[in-house]
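Field reference: sequence -> structure
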Amino acid sequence: MRKIIIIVLALATTLGFVFWRFGPKIGNNNKDENKPTTLLIYGLWEDENYIKPAIEAYKKVKPNVTLKYVFQSSINYQKRVQTQISSNEGPDVFMLHQTWVPGFIKANLLSPMPSGVMSLEEYTQAFNPVAVETLTQDNKIYGIARGIDGLALYYNEDILKAVNASVPQTWEEFRNSAIKTTTKDPAGNIITAGAAMGATGNVDHWPDIIGLLFLQQPGASLEKPNSDAGAEIIRFYTNFVTKPSQKVWDVNLENSTQAFAAGKLAFYFAPSWRAHEIHETNKDLHFNTASVPQLPNKKKISWSTVWAYAVSSKSQNQTQAWEFLKFFTSSQTQKLLYQEASKLRLFGLPYSRVELQKELEDDPIVGAFVIQAPDYKSWYLASQTHDQGVNDQMIKYFEDAINATLQGADPKSALDTTAKGVEQVLNTFVNPATPAPSKR
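Structure field:
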């Protein structure tokens, strides 16, 4: 009996230790969930005033979570964030462009969203296809967009009315309307430009326009641009400057955004945020936006340029960070922020959630951006990212091809050099590293 008692006590002691060491912490769950947490958030483009309502709303839901929002300069932002995260000094939550996701994943800098916060199925239903295509990888969610944006066709209502020109739906209609709305002096100098097309130096967002044309054109490939189809795109674009019968723009004209704001340009391609700049420059300008032109009888394709929020792989509060982002991009929060922003400027950030986008479709400026949302595609020719990386380096190769064509070079030959550059950039920033050969 004494031996039995000793054995039972020994087993009880051992099991008690195992349960204490590895079992659930009864009574500590609420304490862990409610412990004070601070999330450092890096934001771009919007100062704290625009997101303060969301921060205050979240504080009511999670009083133990302190949100520290730090507005960042876009200059050298990407490299700065990458360096800080790599050094364990970066933010918990930060903004990044959709085209940066592969590079950040390649460098092991992103934390995937826990499925308990949001499943991939829920994410796919809530957001447009371009979000799934660019912000997820291997069935894991790496980014979540607060808003949606892309290219739209801005047009000057007064110029179109003056010559009875219509808003184009196809590229042929666009070319005809651009020619119709162009006015010149007796010497042939452009007074009112029909469209900001054909050049690089004074056409804002020209890389996005080229990306759109390549994605729409059957047989064209941005990965391998030096095809007959690719050469035709460059020729089509530069003809708006070089071909006398359809010259509607000139390399010596003022910047396209300035020209449109001044009422000297009929058609202009840009994302939604340019509308605020244009309105502030000229409050008397009558302008609207429309969906970008398409090729007839082809699948609709529009150009996306989306900024999303992600969570650092080095964050000590990854689950809490993703829980905040789910709240931050919820329908309720997006509507709140849109309403508050609309008090300070023309409109808020166009909704990224599909269920809300129909509410904006009838807006004369914002409507075009959400109507195109199901058709958005993206690639590494996004302008104004200031990344000095995948986009800026890719843009330089296409810029050289366009400028060479403007100077009389054959576009296909010019694109041969571009193709080599594209391959190099993709291998550096996008394509997974090639495993080193095994040693035997």
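Note: The domain at 33-149+305-360 is CATH 3.40.190.10 (D-Maltodextrin-Binding Protein; domain 2).
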